[in-house]
Amino acid sequence: MLNEFREDLVSGEWVLFATGRAQRPELAKLKKAKVKTTPKSKCPFENPEKYGNVVVAEYLNKEQSDWAIKVVKNKYPAVLEGDIGLPRKTGPFNVQNAKGIHEVVIFREHDRFLHEFSKEELVETLRVYQERYRTMMDGGTHGKYALIFHNHGIRAGASVPHPHSQIMSIPVLPPDVKRSIHGSEKFYREHNKRIYDVMIDWERSEKKRIVYENKYFIAFCPFVSKTPHEIRIFPQESHAHFEKMPEEQLPYLGEILLLVLRKIQSALENPDYNFFIHTAPLEGSSIDAHEFYTWHIEVLPKVSTFGAFELGSGIDVNITDPDDSARLFRETPV
Q1: How confident is the model at residue 322 (pLDDT cuts 50, 70, 90)?
Q2: By the 8 A CB rule, do 74 and 102 touch?
Q3: N or C: which end of the chain has fewer CB within 10 A?
Q4: Radius of gyration of the chain (CA)
């Protein structure tokens, strides 16, 4: 049984590992949670235009007979398009207009999820992510940062069950990204090494938490995993910008992401999950992270809930040992 605090090497934040809490009976109910579906006739993403969604890009299937992916403006955006403007003061507080772009990447089939895609389909999805990111952030006029993310299931925040991802540009640097960028830079200045290179080299030497690796990418359960069964995917060679990933690496990223999603679904009995891509801010911004930062994907199954301790202390509690999680995933056939 694992009971210890571990300090994250990048952010400096502590995570409490208390694996005995995994025996709580109420967690069994969470593991059985299934993705809810709605009839095609009532689904706003089955025919986006019919429900007033503005299509900004369309990608055909390999037979060129129907659309495979449509990108639409989010009908209920978290940020509004328009002039970002300068930060301002309201009393003692800093305020910034919530301006940016919020897009939804809709996949054609109503009830076939990303882990059920072929490798070729997932590679095309990643290619669309790259293209939309570059289009959205072209010229740096639509914000300081863009986040690509995917919610699978109600508990993961997917209000519409039809498979879709989202991309959102915002005028501020997200706190989690900011901590990672600054922590990476501090480590680089002090040790003349990329912090993620050090982490990956150590995981290889330990040989405990690696789930899978191929020519260009490695997936592992981090030593300081903030959530149960967390998996992160890193490029084998450090690159700061996801949107600049070379074309020849896309099939390898598609392979490893698909394998990770399938192993999570099989090993954990179809949990809801989130994944997102953390990439460096745009080149030319106030932060040039190409020397010290490495872009990566974080995949987070939803198998536990936050309580007052986590919210009140700011300390994440992980009820699984990353060593055990990685072993489970390695041993799970897909």
Answers
A1: very high
A2: yes
A3: N
A4: 20
The alpha carbon dihedral of 298, 302, 306, 310 has a sign of: negative
Structure tokens at 164: 């879709």
- Which whole-number Å values give the CA distances from 317 to 2, 76, 98, in the listed order? 12, 33, 32
The one-letter amino acid at 273? Y
CA nearest neighbour of 202 among 300, 30, 322, 122: 322
67: helix, strand or coil: strand
* Reported pTM: 0.91
Q: How far apart are CA 119 and CA 301, in angstroms?
A: 21
pLDDT band at 319 (very low <50, low <70, confident <90, very high): very high
268: domain CATH number? 3.30.428.10
DSSP string over 133-191: HHHHHGGG-S-SEEEEEEEESGGGT-SS-S-EEEEEEESS--HHHHHHHHHHHHHHHHH
Give the model's confidence band at 141: pLDDT under 50 very low, under 70 low, under 90 confident, else very high. Answer: low
Looking up tokens 């055990």 gives 324
**H helix or E strand, kind and range, residue 123:** helix 119-137
Instruction: Report the number of distinct structural domains present in the chain.
Output: 1
Contacts of 179 (CB under 8 A, 6+ apart): 10, 11, 12, 13
State the pLDDT at residue 284: 55
Q: Which CA distances in Å does 205 have to 9, 188, 193?
A: 17, 21, 17
Position 18 scores a pLDDT of: 76
**Best CA proximity match to 143, nearest among 101, 178, 113, 183:** 101
Tokens of 278: 């953390």
Parent domain of 271: 3-331
